[in-house]
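To: structure desk
From: M.T.
Subject: fold request, one chain
Message: Could you run this one when you get a chance? Sequence is below, nothing fancy, just the single chain.
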Amino acid sequence: MHIANQVLGNIHADESLSMEVQRLDKQKKVERVFVPFHDAGRRRVRLRTDQGTDIGVDLPMDEALQNGDVLAVGDESDRMVLIEVAPSEAMALRMSKEIPADQLFEFGVRLGHMLGNQHWPITVKDDVVYAPLTIDHKVMETVVRTHGFDGIESEFVPVQPGDVPTAMPHIEHRHPA
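Reply: Done. C-alpha cells follow.
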C-alpha cells in the first residue's frame, strides 16, 4: 500500500496543475480514486484507484479530501492520483418568513443545537441552511420533525462536492497529562 500524506493542489484551483495532470493522463500516469461523498471529509482513509493501487491517505488534522485534489504517490514525481468525489444530496432548511422577529434568535439557537447534536456539518447560503445527507432521508426528516420546529421548511436538493462540507470541522483539544 502506498501512503499519501500531502495534497499537491486542486485542478479546479490551479491551472498549471490541471495542465500537468492532463499531460500525465495522456501518458497513462494518472490514477483516479472515486470517493463516496461521505468519505471525502475524512483525513485518514484507505482507497483503491481505478488501476487497483491501494492508497492510504493520511492528511494533516486540518485537511480533508476535496473533489479535484491531486495526491503524490510514493517517490514517483511523475505519477499522480486524482480525487473525484461523487455528488450527493443535502437537506435544505429554510425558516418561514412568518416567524416573528422577537423569536428568530431563539429559533436559530434551537436549530444550531439540534444540528450540532446530530454532528451534521452545515453550510449557510443566503437564508438556507444546508446539511449534507449523512443518513437516510426519513431519519433526517424525523430528527427535524421531532424537535418541533414550526415554521421550518425542508427539502432534499442535489449538491456537488465543495457545495457543502462532508464532515464536521475538527476542533483541536488536548487532555491534561
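Reply (cont.): The mean pLDDT is 85. Let me know if you need anything else for the meeting.
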